[in-house]
């Protein structure tokens, strides 16, 4: 299909001459005798490039260029003028014109200019397509949780709405932020990131807003901050829950008014930045504890996207492992490795406290260390943090799936069986799958372990409470109280007499 060129000029004979030249060269042409007609044509019909006169009555060419780009920001426009001054040419370029031709226009010069802008446009479109494909490829996951995230990205990206991304470390929050940018209207502008937790408190203002020369010791020259660098694009504020309180107030002002002053500067600078924030903290709790400003929370939390931990979306594990394995093998110059079903089962039984980042690192280690071509179960066990992988599946009543159990495989208790348990039966003490975590408090982890010990022992005694209490060397009444405190209920299969325990 020939490229379609819209020619805009108030002089009829110029319109006809240019149109004839372009048609002879194989282009399709559309003609407009004014800026307004040009806007109407461009909104109604497909146009690949525009050739527009600067001087026209009613609406001049520069104004029409601005309006055209509001409507179609990427449409290539070549401006032409009989009274071409450097000033007009510069202004046209600043407004986004791709080229500037002086009248009378030589046919060859016109055709070269047109060919160049169309080629340039094709390269831009190809790059955008590649970026979009990369964006899709970057985020792996076919399960319902990832599908929900993809759908939110698709709906939210084209808007200007601020987004708050929540989730544990390593769950892909930064990838989500990048995907939002890549699919937004700002995609050709900068994506700038600041990790608020990684910058010392006294430097964060200068990082965000920049500083003037001499603003503080060490400020040897003027420096633009992240907001200025992200102008027209996206600023990703990672770990926003770690932003110091004084800075939160200043950030709020930029979000409200879109202006800032560099540290040590008096000039007010206007910025147009879409802010996307991420946190691994519960900001509502941080607000209740007086650590985070509620007004800032509402400003950044227009749309919230939660990225669940990997252990809650185990259905994505096979695809993730496959992708990382292919990448890692290619990076390390080796033939593609495959996982045996046993190895996959071992890897699927681990709960990845470091989430996708940890999985990615483990797979990279596999690609370096395994002899291949197929990773065996024992090799996968060896890979996982010591004591966590490849053990016999725990007969836990809490495990919902045999293929991807929700609890980690068992680990032997750290301490030897208590000597103060003379009544304990001679059979081996039950093992439990305790694993320390960084995302739960000490108390919660102790309770998790207690709950697991009780459930495991009950599974071992086939729900015989008296026997379970005896094995654990606890008073039967105390055992019941513990169950109640931990939110555990006697199951239908409970083999105990029906009357409640004393003190219940
Ligand atoms: N769905 C996914 N598909 C492919 N790779 C992923 C996915 N999610 C996360 N990753 C990979 O896991 C690693 C961690 O991701 P990312 O940095 O986006 O997480 P994060 O939540 O921002 O972490 P942090 O809170 O520590 O900054 C990266 O290497 C990223 O490419």
TrEMBL record:
GO molecular function terms listed in the Swiss-Prot or TrEMBL record: ATP binding; sequence-specific DNA binding
Biased composition (Low complexity): 417-426
Record region (Disordered): 410-434
Domain (Sigma-54 factor interaction): residue spans on this chain: 139-368
Modified residues (4-aspartylphosphate): 53
Domain Response regulatory: 4-118
Keyword ATP-binding among UniProt keywords: yes
TM spans (from-to): none
Keywords, in A-Z order: ATP-binding, Nucleotide-binding, Phosphoprotein, Transcription, Transcription regulation, Two-component regulatory system
GO biological process: phosphorelay signal transduction system; regulation of DNA-templated transcription
Protein name: Two component, sigma54 specific, transcriptional regulator, Fis family protein
């Amino acid at each position: 299909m020939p490229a379609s060129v819209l020619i805009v000029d108030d002089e009829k004979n110029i319109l006809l001459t240019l149109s004839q030249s372009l048609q002879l060269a194989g282009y399709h042409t559309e003609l407009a005798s004014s800026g307004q007609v040009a806007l109407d044509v461009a909104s109604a019909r497909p146009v690949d490039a525009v050739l527009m006169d600067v001087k026209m009555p009613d609406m001049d060419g520069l104004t029409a260029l601005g309006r055209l780009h509001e409507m179609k920001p990427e449409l290539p426009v070549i401006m032409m003028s009989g009274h071409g001054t450097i000033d007009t040419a510069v202004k046209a370029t600043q407004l986004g014109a791709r080229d500037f031709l002086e009248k009378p226009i030589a046919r060859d010069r016109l055709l070269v200019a047109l060919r160049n802008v169309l080629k340039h446009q094709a390269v831009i479109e190809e790059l955008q397509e590649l970026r979009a494909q990369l964006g899709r490829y970057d985020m792996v996951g076919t399960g319902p949780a990832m599908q929900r995230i993809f759908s939110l990205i698709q709906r939210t990206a084209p808007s200007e709405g601020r987004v708050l991304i929540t989730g544990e470390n390593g769950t892909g929050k930064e990838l989500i932020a990048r995907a939002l940018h890549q699919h937004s209207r700002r995609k050709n502008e900068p994506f700038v990131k600041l990790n608020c937790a990684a910058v010392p408190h006294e430097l964060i203002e200068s990082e965000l807003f920049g500083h003037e020369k001499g603003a503080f010791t060490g400020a040897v020259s003027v420096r633009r901050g992240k907001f200025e660098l992200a102008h027209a694009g996206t600023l990703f504020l990672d770990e926003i829950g770690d932003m110091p309180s004084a800075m939160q107030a200043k950030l709020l002002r930029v979000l409200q008014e879109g202006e800032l002053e560099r540290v040590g500067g008096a000039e007010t600078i206007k910025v147009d930045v879409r802010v996307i924030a991420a946190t691994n903290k519960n900001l509502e709790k941080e607000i209740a504890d007086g650590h985070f400003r509620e007004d800032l929370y509402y400003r950044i939390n227009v749309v919230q996207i939660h990225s669940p931990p990997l252990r809650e979306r185990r259905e994505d594990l096979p695809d993730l492992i496959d992708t990382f394995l292919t990448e890692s093998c290619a990076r390390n110059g080796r033939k593609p490795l495959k996982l045996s079903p046993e190895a996959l089962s071992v890897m699927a039984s681990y709960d990845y406290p470091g989430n996708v980042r940890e999985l990615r690192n483990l797979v990279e280690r596999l690609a370096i260390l395994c002899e291949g071509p197929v990773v065996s179960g024992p090799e996968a066990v060896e890979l996982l943090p010591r004591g966590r992988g490849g053990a016999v599946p725990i007969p836990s009543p809490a495990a919902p799936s045999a293929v991807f159990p929700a609890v980690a495989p068992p680990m032997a208790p750290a301490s030897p069986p208590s000597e103060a348990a003379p009544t304990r039966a001679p059979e081996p003490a039950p093992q439990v799958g305790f694993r320390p975590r960084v995302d739960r408090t000490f108390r919660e982890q102790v309770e998790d372990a207690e709950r697991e010990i009780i459930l495991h022992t009950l599974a071992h005694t086939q729900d015989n409470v008296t026997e379970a209490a005896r094995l654990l060397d606890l008073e039967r009444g105390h055992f019941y109280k513990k169950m109640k405190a931990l939110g555990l209920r006697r199951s239908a299969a409970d083999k105990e007499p029906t009357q409640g325990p004393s003190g219940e």
